[in-house]
Amino acid sequence: MRAVTSVGVLVVLVLLLAGTGLAVDPGSGDQLSAVPFDRTLTTGLTGVDVERARESGYVIPRGQVFYSQYKYVVGYYGTDALVAGVTDPQQTAQFGQPLAVFVTDLAGTEPRVTDDGYVTLPNASAPAWTRAEDAWFVVGTPARTPAGPMAVPFGDRAAARAFAEDHDGRVLGWTALQDRVEDDDAASDHQPKVAARHRWADRAVDRARAANDRPVSTVVGTDERAVVAATERLSASTNRSPSAVVLGEDAPTLDAVVDDAPPNTTVRLLPGRYDANLTIEQPLTLTGTGTGTVLDGGGDDSVVLVRAPDVAITDLRIVGVGDANAGELEADDGSAWDRRIRLAYGYGDAAIRLRDAHRSLVEHVSIDTPSNGIVALDSDGAVVREVEVTGTAGFEGFMSVLPMYSRMVVEDSHFDGGRDAVYAHYADGMVVRDNHVENVRFGFHDMFTSDTLVANNTIEDVNTGLNVMSRPSGNVVVGNDVTDSSVGISVAGSASYVAGNVVVNNEVGISIGTTRSTYRANTIVGNEVGVRSATTLPTNDVFENDIVGNDRSVAAGMAALESWAVDGRGNYWGPVPGVDRDGDGVVDRTYDPTDAVDRSARHSPLANALAHSPAARLFDQFQQAAPGLRRPSIVDPAPLSDPVNPDRIPANDTNSSRTTNESTA
Amino acid sequence: MTEVRPLLDVAERELRTVVRTPTLMLAGVGYVLLVGGIGWLGGTGAYLGLVLDLLTPVEVLVPVLSFAFGYRAVLGDRESGELATIRTYPVDGYWYVLGVYLGRAVAVVALVLLGLAAAGLVVPLTGQPQLSVIASHATVDSVALYLRYVLATTLFVLVVLAIALLVSAAARSTRGGLALATGAVVALAVGLDGALLGALTGEGVATGAPASLLALSPNSAYRSLVFELSVAPTGVVVPDGPTALLSMVALCAWVVVPLALASRLAWR
Fold first, then answer.
1. Quick one: which of A79, A109, A221, B213 has the most CB atoms within 10 Å?
2. CB contact A5 to B (< 8 Å)
3. What ipTM was estimated for this complex?
4. Same domain, yes or no, for A107 and A230?
5. Residue B236 is nearest to which of A2, A32, A625, comparing CB atoms?
């Protein structure tokens, strides 16, 4: 046989084999079937909503999506989140079109709607899955999830109709449902949110501080002459005559004094040491003269219990706090889904415990504690400000401020030692600003807490500066400064906004664990790893950050390629290969901070020459297409040529060699 | 069927010539290594990613390889006087050109397939990090996309080789052949698309222009075919239009017409 025939036959055989590629339809999701929900990458409703529903047996409809360009199955809590995940252009650009969508099928489970609007399944059946295009959704009924109205999905039209008739709803198909849900651009512009939350905090502070103006009804001291003198001075200046109480003579304990004081007045404590395990059960202002007034709990139990709204504790020092970090797990305070957390964390010993103490104020108080500083339960509008909490060295102590179920303000305070400076548990909307934190585990520890404002805090020498966990949403982290810590800022959850923060000299600057969130105008300098991507569902906007002088600029995530730019503006990485030809401040070349050559182009002449080669440009061209199918990496399609906040970057990090020489000279 | 024998004789002779030319073999090995290298350098774990990575380099490298293999085919015979001898045999011009084409095509296509196979191995052989606790599925990415890409690329190789033979038949001297070949490669890789780009820069022209303009540039027709066959099924947004059929017809025409012209020129 001739050579040309044999080679030719071989070539034709290979081509025939390749021809089978035409016979397959790769775009079909017909063979896919639903997977157990706990094996999906979950997003949608917040962790707290899901936990509450689970504990109470409420149904939250769920969905799962198989995207054409993402190998992991994405799970959604709530039909709104599911629809957004299927229709959001940013999401489909990242992960491709949905190959298959499955939703909870409530047909045959006889769902009931409670008086609160929650949906329960009386016969405790586990709902199955059905394809979304075969499903029918009942809308307009009272049925809801903790997040809002709910479209109730059924795999069977008759069941949907029956439910709709029982509850005055209407039945929609999958396409109609998608058309109905309007675009949720909650994540787009956050500036108004920041201002509004500051305004709320300002109002809360003003309201709580009004307690400082209450007339003095009682002057308390341990030395009779001092008490009399102080009382006389007060009567002369204010034209009132407060009662003078010498402790041990006129009243047995401080507890008895605050019980007897008329409501809405001030009890003034003269300098001295007071044995105190007291309970305040009426609106009252308890004020000292600064650190000279010491409340001593004797090392047992909490020192001051506040059980009424509008109480103020100001200008004094608290010591002798008991050392029990946790409360009794056997107790019962009516809490449900988070019973363990609430009982364990909410009832440890504390210098001040606020319970149902709305709008109460703790101001100018200095605390030494082996356990908690201030614990707040169910105390909305409470304010902690200009407080100084000194905890234990090491992490044996507990939380400096521990808000639970309390939308409160913590500001202008100093926290040193103990475990977490502020540990928030289900304290939606709280504001933590202008504090100084050092030597703790976490500066701000967010558990199940959404819509917070964490602003302008200065944090150093901690494990994690700001740590948002447990999938909350809508948190705003702006203008904070975290240095010399293991992790600067670590955020989980969704629809959050992290901007204008400065993270310097940490092991990891910012750790991104969120979905659909914004990271903008942060200054990330001199960390071992500048930004770590820790999300498995990369849908964040990361742009206009200054990421310079870190040992490694970024650590890629586990999931897919991420593209960090918005509207043609990426991040500032220092000098990168490429030039800005048109002077618009954007370098005309993609920068890949996870790529070995791009990364070392600044220091290695070889890498620099290679990075400018046509070959390198060629490879970059299609790099960002089909990101969900790519190896985990990070690219910046529009690196900035100039820093966004040049004044925040140390001089030797903007232009390495020259300024280093100058500074050593 | 009497013509098949001389056709295969000519093809066999061409293949042997190619195999016995060390520089051509070197170029072939270089091509395989280059394309394989690009695949491995990209290190993508998906066939779609691989197709997109290879598209542009291959589009440039295939003309270079095909012209290296093709531009001296007829010209060499003419210069050595063998063409004059062959003309005395009872063989028609188009059977001779077809035989030359077949012999060279077998070699070039084999090399291109080798290169694509080398690159294609990167996907099954690269371990992707995998989150084992999370359910995963096959996604839209499949080897079928790559196989379609291989088919389209083969058609493109045949087109470029046909043009190379035309150049070879038209040239009357080595120097002229080299100049023509270089010009043709540049025209294919840059020139024709450049001309189209230039024609379309006017306001509103680009969206309104008929898709059939694609037929004017083999590279664009090929690229469009790849988008249609391998990229569009994955949900990457590609403009709609009957471009697959159009591109196929255009590419086939780009094979037939140059070969027909070449057979006229060869015997002249």
1. A79
2. yes
3. 0.80
4. no
5. A625
